[in-house]
Amino acid sequence: MATDTPAPTGIGVLRRDFRTDPFFDGAAADRLVIRRCADCDLWLAPDATCCPGCGSEEPGWADAAGDATLVTWTVVHGRPAEDGTVPPPAVLALVELTEGPWLHTRLVGVERAALREGLPLTAVFEHPGEGESYLLFRPA
Amino acid sequence: MNAAIAGLGMTELGKVYGRSPRRLAADAVRLAAADAGLALTELDGLLVSHGLGGSPGIELADTLGLRDLRLLTQMNSFGATAGAMVSYAAASVLSGAATTVACVFSDAPLKPEQSAGSAYHRDAREWYGFGGMTAALGLRSVNAFYALAAQRHMARYGTTSEQLGAIAVSTRQWAARNPLAQMREPITLADHQASRWVAEPLHLLDCCLVSNGAIAVIVTSADRAADLARPPVHVWGWGQGHPGHRKERGSEFGLTTGAAVSGPVAMKMAGITPADVDVCQLYDCYTYTVLVSLEDYGFCAKGEGGAFAESGALAPGGALPTNTGGGQLSGYYMWGMTPLSEAVIQARGDGGERQAPANDVILVSGNGGILDHHSTLIVSPHRKGA
After folding, report:
1. Which of B221, B244, B275 is the last residue of a domain?
2. Which of A126, B126, B266, B303 is the most buried (most CB within 10 A)?
3. Catalytic site residue B146?
4. Interface touch A13/B134, C-beta < 8 Å
5. Are residues B99 and B204 in the same domain?
6. ipTM of the shown complex
7. Which of B142, B200, B253 should be substituted to probe chain A, the one whose Cβ sees the most A Cβ atoms within 10 Å?
8. pLDDT tens across B99-143, in order?
9. pLDDT grade for A77, boundaries at 50, 70 and 90
10. Which among A19, A76, A116 is the nearest to B138, CB-wise?
11. Within-domain flag for B146
């Protein structure tokens, strides 16, 4: 799932906290790792803090397929920098993983005219020189 | 028997610098008490709320020299708080827990030499954890999250930017008639369409103002209010709705709000239906918020909010005068106190050039978070059931 498109500009440096190791370890290896409660057979977003099925506060982790569809999106225009240069617009989105959970993310390699509800997407990972990998999505 | 709003106090609103949130809140409570013809010592309840500029704290009671209060707390359901405060105050009055309760909101997020938007925008070089990841990728402002919601409504129901623009235009038409409004220059649909993108599909003129200031109301019994200085504004009903939109398949995010719950609850308590409502004061952090709230209250069918707005119903002379003071888009941004304060003004018949032709039943909404929290009040110049 690695990508050869240039890294989008305007993304900040990502750092781990105590809840994110499995997710960022996976992202570093181009794998989308999300929460999964095996007891309840429920897939959950990576930031889920408990399983809505059984209340477990430590649902497990599992590899998601990396396939998603577009729920909704916004094109955000950055603020001009001090030197007057304006960053390119970013397409930010809510996507629905095949497994069910939604993620807030950023789209790459997508034409604005192609944006529509249900657009098939695939996870891609960027590995910046500093900080953790970025999870992005592009048209499948 | 019902509770009533007996006093309204509003500080200067907008680019008001040099006063702390507590000082602003104290000023608003004093103004509200004076408006009602009450001495501060007659208050036995105080409910405090705030925006992003810092809390007045319940120490506000001490600042005001209030003693022997029976009710004192800080409340927060974001933009739904004003309605929640009035309903708690009304329930306290009706139960006998307190007799005369001030409810205040204050905020001072604006600083000199700083853009209004920066008060609601996060920026950093490094971001931590899952929350930080969303922000690092670019979702750094409330605007972007509401844009996601609005875009979903547009994609699902065919709602257009021009329909959102109709709300911006009608709201400004009302603001032009309100001396308290911050933005009174008329705008056209073309102005709306030409205004810069904030986060597509939201233009600048789809977004509310940011204001410093404070607003307070005083809630007491209808009988007591009748003996005070100003015409009572009777509280007929209230409700809350907190949908807890799930972030997973099947979520209604962007399509419905808590108004779908709080509206029927409040209207049932008030003994009315949407057809009885003469005036709406809807929380308008964005034009889209008005549109989706109108649907959820049942003023039009789900998905038809755009056509309803475009029909001119909300504008001066329209069938459902809405945000008659210019709302948060053009009037002033005091979170839920913006719609509530204008409702009090309309119920009293104090609207001057912008007074709605009928004011018997006024619906007030509050909306907080990213459509996470909603409150509804039904108020009237008449006693409930009279």
Report:
1. B221
2. B266
3. no
4. no
5. no
6. 0.93
7. B200
8. 999 999 999 999 887 777 776 677 788 999 998 999 988 888 899
9. confident
10. A76
11. yes
In chain B, the residue whose alpha carbon lies closest to the alpha carbon of A70 is: B152
Residues B333 and B364 in one domain: yes
B191 with B215, same domain: the answer is no
Q: Where are the alpha helices (DSSP H) in B247-302?
A: 259-270, 287-297
Query: Mean pLDDT across the stretch B284-304?
Result: 98
- pLDDT tens digits, B22-38: 999 999 999 999 999 99
Chain A residues touching B248 at Cβ < 8 A: 44-45, 96, 100-102
User: Any idea what the CATH number is for the domain that residue B100 is in?
Assistant: 3.40.47.10
**What chain A residue is nearest to B255 in terms of C-alpha separation?**
A72
Pairing mode, strands B279-281 and B362-368: parallel
Cβ contact A74–B199 (<8 Å): yes
Judged by CB atoms closer than 8 Å, whether chains meet at A47 and B125 is answered as: no
Closest chain A CA to residue B128: A15
> Is there a contact between A100 and B124 if contact means CB atoms under 8 Å apart?
no
Catalytic residue among B146, B283, B297, B332: B283
Whole-angstrom distance, CA of residue B172 vs CA of residue B12:
20
* pLDDT confidence of residue B171: 98
In this structure, what are the phi and psi dihedrals at residue A121, rounded to the nearest 5 degrees?
Answer: -135, 160
Counting the structural domains of chain B, the total is 2
B128 is catalytic: no
**CA-CA distance, A124 to A99, in Å (whole number)?**
17
Instruction: Choose the closest CB to A92 out of B127, B131, B144.
Output: B144
- B325-360 pLDDT, tens digit per residue, is 999 999 999 999 999 999 999 999 999 999 999 999
Q: Indicate if B189 and B249 belong to the same structural domain.
A: yes
Task: Provide Rg for chain A, Cα atoms.
Answer: 16
Tokens of A93: 């989105």
Decide if pLDDT at A5 tops 60: no
B244 part of contact set with chain A, CB < 8 Å? no
If asked whether residues B71 and B163 sit together in one domain, one would say no
Q: Are residue B75 and residue B159 in the same domain, yes or no?
A: no
Start-end of H helices in chain B: 21-36, 60-63, 81-95, 129-137, 142-157, 161-175, 189-194, 222-226, 259-270, 287-297, 305-310, 337-348
Determine what percent of chain B is predicted with pLDDT higher than 70. Answer: 99
Nearest residue to B46 (alpha-carbon basis) of B61, B31, B28: B61
Look at residue B132 and tell me if it is in a domain. no
At B291, the pLDDT band (50, 70, 90 cuts) reads very high
Domain extent at residue B60: 3-111+210-221
Residue B374 inside a domain? The answer is yes
Residue A9 has pLDDT above 80, yes or no: no
Residue B203 maps to a domain: yes
| Exposure of B137 in the CB half-sphere (CA atoms within 13 A) | 28
Contacts of A106 in chain B (CB under 8 A): 137-138
Are B338 and B204 in the same domain?
yes
Burial of B284 (0-12, 13-18, 19+ CB in 10 A): buried
B134 touches chain A (CB under 8 A): yes
Distance from the Cα of A101 to chain B's closest Cα (Å) equals 4
B168 and B87 within one domain = no
* Residues forming a β-bridge with A37: A42
